[in-house]
Design goal:
The protein has 20 helices and 23 strands. The chain is α/β, with parallel strands linked by helices. A hairpin with a 6-residue loop joins strand 21 and strand 22. The longest helix has 14 residues.
């Protein structure tokens, strides 16, 4: 979110999912859309097959979308900024950029132009491995499309240069005048169904609902009035900062909701040590996860089918959730648990329903102000929806950016923190597979997904497998500077020579025992997508 917010003034998906089917071109980078966002991928594939939409894929793996692509730019892991700068170099040098749009709606273009001038296709090829020919072809296709949409996901953000990657994507879109138009924009694909909603509601350490800064005195006073309490002007800590503070002893108690850091955080040995250093660990979840098994107190909450409320999806669409079954045992809705605990701790929360909470949301969240349960009964609404008669907003930044002018950022390529060497000669990247998500808390407990994908696999290119004497299905040992994991080998062309891929769904092969905890300096997101490993038979 930080990268888009810095460029546009808003970190949300700029356009709507349905537009992907009817635009002129889609550029997909850092997103294995078919497996991670299968519904969204169907819009892209229908667009390609039925509407003649052009498709550019930028990815170091031969993901499923490559089969539909007009151009595939297969870059070395962690070289995204160089590739994006190379695309912009071609567009500017061949005068294919949107001069009037840039002059009227953006600032700092000259700085961008100066930096990308160094990233010639030949120079980018040396850095990234992407051929100069393919880079030029992709740049011309993107620039010459009347409408072009960019979609990206964690393959862009989970790097020490993640914020720079996102800013570079924003640069490319603005360069060709694609922000603020239907069928265009920059569209981050959120990992779960309510990631956007959680952020909208203030689930970030530096903002209140609707991204109102805690450091802003006027915003703070509004929430002090609404909540009848004195609030701090100091931003909180990010997840990685919280864990580090727990390890130092600066944080004594931790309350974890719907998260499983003992599988999802990098450098798991260190995470376990940090959690064990706490005086009190509380976990609120629907299953007894690996993290919950360490907890002093476990609070049983409800699943999506056992509660009322709203979710806000990746395209900013607010939708009703309706209870269809009663929760088992002592389980309660998350809001009920929080309300009861808050009341016992001295701050009364007397909500009687999820609807009552949403009524408060629309009072303190300007972008939700025109929504009601009644309006959401039949269909969802996309924010901003400021008034009761507003239809919702299909795409953002139509006439002006949220920050006024779109801001170009002049960004140099910086290599990943950890590169392969003689001792650890392979790149490891992590991600999801179609049948499971996140730490497998729900999907590995379901019969269907588990039958189709029962265990973790190590994707290895045939050339590397032959060199190492590894065969299909053989148990292998993957080792980084932080740990070792064992899993079965899968020999496949999906992974390029010199790279391996693993998913993070299975506790039996916890890949994040290997990953690098190095953080993006702005977004504080770990570098899950690039680390150096060695591979050998188990």
């Amino acid at each position: 979110m930080a990268g888009l917010a810095a460029s546009f003034g808003s970190g949300a998906m700029t356009n709507s999912i349905e537009e992907l089917e009817f635009t002129d071109l889609v550029l997909a980078t850092g997103t294995n859309t078919t497996e991670n966002h299968p519904v969204i991928s169907s819009f892209i594939k229908r667009g390609v097959r039925q509407q003649g939409v052009k498709l550019i894929v930028i990815d170091p793996r031969e993901i499923d979308l490559v089969k539909y692509a007009d151009v595939w730019l297969c870059q070395k892991p962690g070289t995204d900024v160089a590739v994006l700068n190379g695309l912009m170099n071609v567009i500017i040098s061949e005068n294919l950029y949107a001069r009037d749009y840039i002059a009227e709606r953006t600032e700092n273009f000259d700085a961008l132009k100066a930096v990308v001038s160094k990233y010639t296709p030949e120079h980018v090829e040396k850095i990234s491995g992407v051929s100069a020919k393919d880079l030029k072809k992709a740049a011309r296709m993107y620039a010459q499309a009347k409408r072009a949409s960019i979609v990206y996901a964690m393959g862009i953000t989970q790097h020490t240069s993640g914020t720079d990657n996102v800013k570079s994507v924003a640069n490319l879109s603005m360069l060709c005048g694609n922000v603020g138009i239907e069928g265009g924009g920059v569209n981050p694909l959120r990992g779960q169904n309510n990631v956007q909603g959680a952020c909208d509601m203030g689930g970030l350490p530096n903002v209140y609902p609707a991204y109102q800064q805690v450091s802003n005195e006027d915003a703070r006073k509004r929430f002090e009035t609404a909540w009848r309490v004195k609030l701090s002007a100091k931003p909180g800590l990010t997840l990685m900062e919280i864990m580090a503070a727990a390890g130092r002893g600066d944080i004594k108690a931790l309350y974890i909701m719907g998260e499983n850091p003992l599988l999802s955080d990098p450098d798991l040995k260190h995470v376990e040590k940090e959690l064990r250093n706490l005086d009190l660990l509380i976990v609120q979840d629907i299953f007894l996860t690996e993290t919950a098994q360490m907890a002093d107190v476990v609070l049983p909450s409800t699943s999506f089918a056992e509660k009322e409320g709203t979710f806000t999806n990746t395209e900013r669409r607010v939708q009703r959730v309706r209870k269809i079954v009663d929760a088992p045992g002592e389980a309660k809705a998350d809001w009920e648990i929080i309300s009861e605990l808050s009341t016992k701790m001295g701050y009364p929360m007397k909500y009687s329903s999820a609807k009552e909470i949403f009524d408060e949301v629309i009072k303190v969240t300007p972008s939700y102000a025109g929504m009601t349960y009644e309006r959401l009964e039949k269909e969802g609404l996309q924010w901003p929806c400021p008034t009761a008669d507003h239809p919702g907003t299909k795409f953002l930044h139509k006439d002006r950016f949220s920050r006024g002018l779109g801001l170009f950022h002049a960004i140099e390529y910086i290599p990943p923190v950890e590169l392969p060497d003689e001792e650890y000669p392979l790149f490891l990247s992590t991600g999801r597979v179609l049948y499971h998500y996140h730490t497998g808390t729900m999907t590995t407990r379901a019969q269907g997904p588990s039958e189709r994908y029962p265990e973790s696999l190590v994707e290895i290119n045939p050339l590397d497998a032959e060199k190492l004497g590894i065969s299909e299905g053989q148990m292998v040992k993957v080792t980084s500077r932080r740990g070792t994991v064992q899993a079965k080998a899968q020999i496949t062309q999906k992974s390029m020579p010199g790279t391996i891929f693993m998913n993070f769904h299975f506790a039996g092969a916890p890949v994040n025992a290997l990953t690098n905890p190095a953080l993006d300096p702005t977004g504080k997101i770990p570098e899950y997508k690039v680390c150096a490993v060695k591979l050998e038979a188990a």
